[in-house]
Write a structure and sequence with these properties.
The protein has about 100 residues and is α/β, with parallel strands linked by helices. The chain has four helices and three strands. Strand 2, helix 2 and strand 3 form a beta-alpha-beta unit.
């Protein structure tokens, strides 16, 4: 059993207050997953604070198919994300992003 809290404030939705996340963590004893607009640093801070057991990444995995490798090796993340191609019928904008090249 887990609770997955998604904060879409990076996309313009209202921010999920820290107090709400803290209340969930206090009352829910199983896995808490936080998601929404995290950087490597903010995800690590959420984990270290005990607020989350896991941090999920969505959009960064689309335009960074090698996201884990980039984070592990402190490589820059691509910010080139084609929102206009979301929910279209082919691979354009989903599986055609390149891996990091030096």
């Amino acid at each position: 059993m887990y609770v997955h809290v998604v904060d879409h404030s990076a996309l313009g939705a209202p921010h999920v207050p820290l107090e709400i996340k803290q209340a969930i963590r206090k009352e829910f004893k199983n896995t808490v997953i936080l998601a929404g607009g995290h950087t490597k640093e903010s995800a690590e801070a959420e984990l270290q604070s005990g607020l989350a057991d896991l941090v999920a990444f969505g959009r960064p995995f689309i335009n960074n198919p090698d996201l884990v490798d980039r984070m592990q090796n402190d490589l820059p993340l691509s910010t080139d994300l084609h929102f206009d191609l979301f929910y279209t019928p082919d691979e354009k904008g989903y599986t055609d992003y390149p891996v990091y090249q030096q």
